[in-house]
Each structure stands twice: as structure tokens, then as C-alpha cells.
Amino acid sequence: MSKDRVVLAYSGGLDTSVAIGWIGEQTGSEVIAVAVDVGQGGEDLQVIRQRALGCGAVEAYVADAREEFATEYCMPALKANGMYQKRYPLVSALSRPLISKHLVKAAREFDATTVAHGCTGKGNDQVRFEVSITSIGPDLNCIAPVRDLALTRDVAIEYANKHSLPIETTKHNPFSIDQNVWGRAIETGFLEDIWNAPTKDVYNYTDDPTYPPLPDEVEIEFKQGVPVAIDGRPLSPLQIIQEMNRRAGAQGIGRIDIVEDRLVGIKSREIYEAPGAIALIAAHEELENVTVEREQARFKKTVDQRWAELVYDGQWFSPLKKSLDAFVDDTQYYVNGTIRMTLHGGRAVVTGRKTDSGLYDFNLATYETGDTFDQSHSRGFIEIYGLPAKMSAARDERFGRGL
Ligand code: ARG
């Protein structure tokens, strides 16, 4: 009988490199290593692939999922102005379902029964992986060697040295970092003392906003809530995010320092940098202000928040998230036009809007002569609109509860 197979989400780092042999020893299975490129940059992914094979994987491959990530994960997040606790643009939360999708695909291709990831038992990512994996492949098992097979850091270093694995064991980054094209998350180390300010070395996507270069003016064109061009140049979603990362990053936009509520009940200190995401969300929100009808816009704020919570909580493939997507998409029909922003000194400030599908009516809004708003109607409107408040105030008066 042939051996069982495990597909491992492989990053190229120490833990997942050791996990290849470790899973083999602990479970008797063959390991297929899958690295998913979501624009994390850093090492050449072919080098990572070779390392996986060098560490004993029977197969290893790299999936270039950058355009897919930008188009099918970051763009829906932008349409929903996706921010957890109003501040975190869901960087890691967005990539996990996509990575999961590719893991399940690999499991099918290579006839694996189990999918493995390198998360610990304390974070959100383990939940996101496993809930996503079993949402797409309900028959698959999940294992997490660091959490379930006692692969601690000391064990990992010892194992790598003993087996002369082609991986560095001496360099230890003081932080736990996860990054992709939508942003970068930095945690642990001295940041765990929530009084400690982040130091310069924490940041990589952004320059110090205290010493910005000259202001940078940018025009972003949207079609149905999705950015399609920058300064008149048509670009793909991935290219737009990359260009905005570069330009907003140079101005130190999108640095976030927050204590957030993890799904597993822990409050944790996180530093994020998401220059492109933060600038794009600011532009998108303003275009919505001009184009989305008032009641729809008010209700959408609640939907946006719920959407972000679901995605944060690992429910990307859930029925409710799908229903909310349908609502969000419907609201984006008229979100077309161009937003002009000035990027400078850590801030992306909108200075102009242009749209032919907006609801802003100059002639209604103007205080100049010739406006089309009939002010005589306001009197009657307020009379009736204020009637319930007036009636109940009179009743309070009668019962001695007046102001
Ligand atoms: N706390 C963030 C989240 O749950 C970031 C997690 C990043 N993961 C990491 N290994 N640093 O989305």
C-alpha cells in the first residue's frame, strides 16, 4: 500500500522546513510542500522550492497567486472598505483563504488526505486555514505540527542541525512577520510590552512619515468600486496595489499600531503597514460618499464592519460572507469616477472627486443664486419629521418628566 500524503503550506522558513521531515517521522506520510506567492516578496520562490525538496519533500511547487489574490481577495476587501476594529485592513486574514484554496487543489492533485500548516495554537491563522480548508474540502484532515506534533523552536533547530537541512538556524528574527501585497503584519518580541513604541527596524513597506519627500498628487479611477487606472494609466488590480504601496509607502502612509481582539480570546499587540490599502480605502470611501444613496450608504457601514469581522474570524467561505458580498457588489454599481488625493507626511487626503454616476447635484447644493432646491418645502418637512419628538416631549411634560 502506498504511503499517505500530506500537503504542507510551506513558507521556506525554519519551522515549515523542519515540519517536512517531522511530519514524515511522526505520521509516516509523504509530504508535498506548497508555497503560495501572494506578493510577499523576499526570497526567490524557486529557491524556496528547492529547499523544500532538500528538506525531504517528495514534491514541491510554487503557485503564483498574486493576480488572483489582488483581484479576488483584495478587491472585495476594498469594496467593503474592509477594516477590522476600524483600523486593520485584514492583510493576513485575506491571504489565508486563498492559500487554503491552493492547498486543497494540491491535495486533490497529489491524492493527499491531510493538509498541514505551520501556525501555533494561539492565533487566528490556524482557524482561518482549517475552517477554509474544510469548507472547500470537507473530507480533508488538518494538522499543525507546531501545535499538534510538538514541534517547538528548540526541537526545530536541533532537528535542522542534526539532519543538515539546507536552512539557516542561527538567524532569529525578533518578530513574527506575515506579509503580502495588501500589507505587512509584525508581532511578538519587545512589541509584546504594549508600552514599547515600535522601533524603525519594524517597518519595511513604509518610510518614516516624519521626514516625507515632497507631496505626491495621485488620481485614482474606479469602475464599480474597483480601481482601474492611476493618473490615467490603466493598470491591473495587482499593479494598482503595487504602485500605491510604493507611492503611499514613500510618504509613510498606513502605519498602524493596535491592540486587537483575536478570535481565540487573546488581546494582542500588532503593528501593521499597509500603505496602498489604506490610501485605496480612503479614496474608495470618498467615491462612495458621492455615489451611494444615503440609506444604502448608512446601512453599508454596518455590513462593511460585519464583513470585516467575518473575514477576520476565518469565515471567508461562509454563507453569510457570501450574502454580504452580494449586497456589497450591488452597492458598487454606480461607484465610478476619479478621486484625486495628496499623499504626504503619513496621510492620504482627498482633494477632488469626479464622477458621471454620482448623486451630488451642484444646483441642489449651491448657496449661490439660481439653486434648484425649494427651501419653502423644508418648513413642512421639519414639522412632520419632528412630530414624534414633539409629541413625546409634551407627554413627558404632563407626567412631570420634562427637561
Ligand atoms: N493578528 C493578525 C491577524 O490575525 C496578523 C497575523 C499575522 N501572522 C503572523 N504570523 N505574524 O490577522
TrEMBL record:
The keyword Acyltransferase does not apply. One of its GO terms (molecular function) is argininosuccinate synthase activity. It catalyses: L-citrulline + L-aspartate + ATP = 2-(N(omega)-L-arginino)succinate + AMP + diphosphate + H(+). L-citrulline binds at Y88, N124, R128, S176, E260, Y272. L-aspartate binds at T120, N124, D125. Residues 175-391 form the Arginosuccinate synthase C-terminal domain. Homotetramer. Belongs to the argininosuccinate synthase family. Type 1 subfamily. This is Argininosuccinate synthase.
